[in-house]
Amino acid sequence: MKTGYLRSLLILGGAIVMVGMVVPNLRLSWREPRAVATPPGGVDPASIHPEEIFARAAALASPSVVNIDTERRVRLRGSLLEEEFFGPRYQRVAGSGSGVIINAEGDIITNEHVVSGAERIVVTLADGRQFDGRVIGGDRRTDVALIKIEGSKLPVAKLGSSAKLIPGQISVAIGNPLGLRFTVTQGIVSALGRPIRVGDRIYEDLIQTDTAINPGNSGGALVDREGKVIGINTLVDQQAHGIGFAIPIDTAMRIVRQLKQYGKVKRPWTGIYAMPITRIIQVRFGVDFTEGAFVQGLDRGSPADEAGILPGDVVLELNGEKVRDPDSLRQITDKLKIGQTVPILIYRQGERLKGEITLREAP
After folding, report:
1. Looking at the domain assignment, is residue 103 inside a domain?
2. Which CATH number belongs to the domain containing residue 130 in this structure?
3. Could you give the CA distance from residue 169 to residue 222 in angstroms, rounded to a whole number?
4. Which domain, by its residues, includes 344?
5. Which residue among 96, 171, 218, 302 is the active-site one?
6. Can you give the pLDDT at residue 4?
7. 139 annotated active-site
8. For this structure, is 218 an active site residue?
9. Is residue 310, in this structure, part of any structural domain at all?
10. CA–CA separation, 333 vs 330, rounded Å?
């Protein structure tokens, strides 16, 4: 009797020790069900109390916000010997993001980084319907893409305008962060006109918001209190709390119109490769100022080459606007038209020279 009792205690004690070792190392894994029971868009906005402004905005906008699942093939890195004997190896990688239906024809706006390189795109609506998505076009520089689905009775977003936004204005983000479909977060517009460079992407005039934005929110909607889309969520500062960014809807739609018409964005081009004026440049080229775009190089046969601009020149003005740095030169160029001839002012070996440059479409 005592032996059996002691044996039971030993087994129980061992189990407790094992639990003590295992439980602290357990990792919970959330698996989103394929059918979402109660998306925000399933609520009648008219039934929501007038003071519940965030809930009303979410109910109005959520039906048009979609979940985007992607599958792409990624080449695995191997040694030269492995690739010589076995050839290149690939792995299929799944990704997810969000998007916004902008018309009844099934056009969906999202981020370029959400669908770039995707071999398969599955779009899930708030009502549970699923469609195969097709990329119409994407613009890497601004991170805007247009995809399309074929369906009927599609919920279309009401588009607002980002032109009249003010800091402190209420904002609501709707998307699919970390695979948690149709998540709603709220906050305010923190600032406007934030320029950010991430690698070779140049985000101009972004909306900064403290509305929580997480991976998977990319391509989703940032809406105002009326449920109108004012931005496309795209970035979050992982080193901070409450600092997210959205592409203004006016900018996004300008890109989308070109993607729908041409499949790409047509931009005016000078052919100049510029860099900021550094101390080394000042000493080597005798430049006694800091503002301007130093011509590091240019494409042969480009508009700049044909205009007589040389490496070592400094662009001071373009079309009468002051050039402060390379970003300023690009921003001024983007406002011009393909085929337009404009005045240009450069600095070369102590002289300020005026000329003209005719812009062409970027290759």
Report:
1. yes
2. 2.40.10.10
3. 12
4. 268-361
5. 218
6. 52
7. no
8. yes
9. yes
10. 5
